[in-house]
Amino acid sequence: MKVLVTGGGGTVGKSIIRGLINRNYTITSLARRAYPELEKLGVEQLEVDIRDYEKVKPALVDKDAVFHVAAKVGLWGKYDEFHSTNVIGTENIIKACTVNQIKYLVYTSSASVVFDGKNIVNGNESLPYPSIPISNYTETKALAEQLVLKANCSSLKTLSLRPHLVWGPGDNHIVPGILRRAKAGTLRQIGANEYYIDTTYIDNLCDAHLCALDALSNSIAADGQAYFISNDEPIKIWDFINSILKAHGMSPINKKLSVRSALAISWCLENYHKIFLPNKEPALTHFAVNEVITSHWFDIYKAKKTLSYHPKVSIEQGLKNLSQYIT
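Below the sequence we write its predicted structure tokens.
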């Protein structure tokens, strides 16, 4: 099978590529630049911006399947920047898949597409998209997901995976963010440690993508749907953060900040940055505060039943792997 992975140089993209290599598939990575690590793996690399359809179209020639992972992520930034990559870029991928008669398209979405700032406890795929999106990232990822699911048909089978808080060796988002704030002395426990979250270890997410492709290619009735993906181990937010710190030989958080103070600080910082530093992310955002003062964990029964996805690496083992990766 010939497979193309958009965003192949990112943490998730590289993990999927390694999984595909183990299957002896012919793999192409599509990203805005080339990556030495992928070169060493012998992966064909195409330097293409997904916002440019005229370059995307020929890149998908003679492929059987596409994993669309590329996206603009973050808690801060202009809407147009998120929209151009996450929505227009996805439109280009879908159009190129159709023109090139690609059989299968697996989209990497996010569990946050249904997050409205309120508690989600054992949520399933019946949860609606929020009427008022909580961030530019979540809004544009939701729009892109809807495009992918709408594109599903007999000639192009599509589905969407919704992982939550992806972490592990090589992570360049969640773990580095925690460590950066801890080293700077700005990390504070906000509110009580009573809320539970889902997380997704990177190897498990890779397995989920391979399971998704298998389900689509084996004619299982999996297409046209979204699936929550996680470790299936809800954990208290601050227990998880302290575990990450411990894996890096750092002390747990011992300073706290009230919810009211955190919300006030984030409001002030966001307004200041909008005026004076629009291109720089504030140290604390309203979205980030909401993430740690609510529970958000999900029922992955649908992924287990339909995709045969079962997380193999526990949080405990993942933390051991992370610690060994560091040393």
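The chain has a mean pLDDT of 96.
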